[in-house]
User: What shape does this take?
Amino acid sequence: MSVDATMREIKAVDSENQKNLLSDEWRMNQLQKHLTAEDHPYHKFSTGNWDTFETSVTYLFPITKYLGLLATGMTVDARTLVQQARNEVSEFCHKYGYEMPVDVLAKWIADKSQVYTQHAYMRPLEVVAMVLGSDDK
Assistant: This one.
């Protein structure tokens, strides 16, 4: 993703956050979130804004020789996702005898992230990830 495209995405997220600040429904949701127990994952989850992106870090993690993951957000979540992706790619290669295709890894990450949003006892991953792949041709 180019620097220009990244900045457009950050501005879009910040714009959505600014719009949410005017929404009664969003504010009621924030109030409900604030009233939950502090140790509950729902209490900590919110939308991003310009400030959250300034405190986040972007890393490029190698998964295999041909696969990588560009991650922006909470470093601990990025490292956890990378470790799980490496394990999944290794199991795929062992089971099928060839390198995991980029689209299969991207779908696995998307499915895993979706599960984290569906269960109250699981904190959603605070990371945006892009799967990168190349071949030797």
Observations:
- The chain is about 55% helix and 15% strand.
